[in-house]
Amino acid sequence: MDLREPVDELRSGDRPRLVLWPERAATPRSIALLAGSFDPITVAHVAMAEAAREVAELVVLVYAVRTLPKEGGAGSPLVPEGERIRTVAAVCASRPATAAGLCSHGLLADQVAAAEDRFPGAGVTLVVGSDKLAQLFDPRWYEDRDAALAGLFARADVRYAVRAGDDLRGALRIAGELGHGDRIRPLPVDPAVASVSSRTVREALRAGRDVWAWVAPEARDAVRRALG
Q1: By the 8 A CB rule, do 195 and 163 touch?
Q2: pTM over 0.85
Q3: What pLDDT was estimated at residue 217?
């Protein structure tokens, strides 16, 4: 299946859009969005997706074709974009009620708006790691944080997986002050598993460490090719 057409179309558009890849008819009553770079897709992504199936009929692993700059820099990609998307699709194909999605925008508030358009009438849950929950309330990512979050929480609940060592007190305090505290709940994922980030895996593999158990099985061949 050719990826270039949907990726190019999404990258050139201004309005937030979400498509499934491969596209298929889907009319769930509820969806969960789990966004990531998936470079590579890890056991943490898989565990969070599986936990999210308890709260939504369809879990969409969302890759944004236009990403946001990350604080401190995330380093150069390991797996080429097309390979990443194909491995995410392979992970989803082998698991029930799970689909790969492509989104035009990287901001989570925009992805929620795009999901509402793609799945009209469906309840939306945004699934994040606790590091992303803290980032969600960081005003540096927005022109108007409070307005953007008001739009997000009007459309979606948030479920977060706690990563070992993360301190969420600040984010949860701000959420309460903004009136969104009742829309945020934890997701039952082992903190040790949730702590396995794509960045950690990339750095470990490039350093020659054997962390293949942290990589989703469907992605291991693509990662080996990328490492040469």
Answers
A1: yes
A2: yes
A3: 97
